[in-house]
Amino acid sequence: MATRFDPFREMDRLMGQVLASDRAAATMPMDLYRSGDHYVLNVDLPGADPGSIDISVEDRTLTIRAQRSSRTEQDVQWLAKERPAGTYARQLTVGRGLDLDAIAATYDDGVLTLTIPVAEEAKPRRIEVQRRGSATAIESSGTAVSAA
To answer: Hey, where are the domains in the chain?
Structure first.
């Protein structure tokens, strides 16, 4: 039985491997969840130099940048080099109601964690409604909770 060699398929496979490693260098997998009065954003930045991490907020855009350097040793013959190097960058558009001036950031074991508090004006609050000698407490959504 003859085996057929398709040079275009092999070239496509090799290009896919090269492009996949370039895409991996540019991505930052993340998790985002809300816990109480704040949001928590966990971003994977394996091998990033903590000094290269830059977090900025402009208007409603949160930008995270980090640098991962490749090893540049002399007289080395690489047998496999799959770990991406370069600049990681990610931008997120955040909604209103967050206190962007109070963001806290930590970097531990290759994971950048941002804690973003909910702004005071965006937190739910109760409004007392007075009605001829009785008070009814309602939430800001307009739903009656209790009547006196």
So the answer is: 25-72+81-117, 124-148
Q: What's this model's pTM, rounded to 2 decimal places?
A: 0.65
Rounded to the nearest angstrom, the gap between the alpha carbon of residue 71 and the centroid of all alpha carbons in its chain is: 26
List the structure tokens of 8. Answer: 């275009």
Q: What is the rounded distance in angstroms from the CA atom of residue 136 to the CA atom of residue 32?
A: 37
The domain at 25-72+81-117 falls in which architecture?
Sandwich (2.60)
Q: Which residues pair with 66 in a beta bridge?
A: 88
pLDDT at site 77: 85
**Radius of gyration of the chain, Cα coordinates, nearest whole angstrom:** 26
d(CA 100, CA 92): 13
- Name all contacts of 83-86 with Cβ < 8 Å and 24+ positions apart: 83/47, 84/21, 84/22, 84/24, 84/25, 85/25, 86/25, 86/26
Computed over every residue of the chain, the mean pLDDT equals 79
| Most confident of the ranges 1-5, 6-10, 128-132 | 128-132
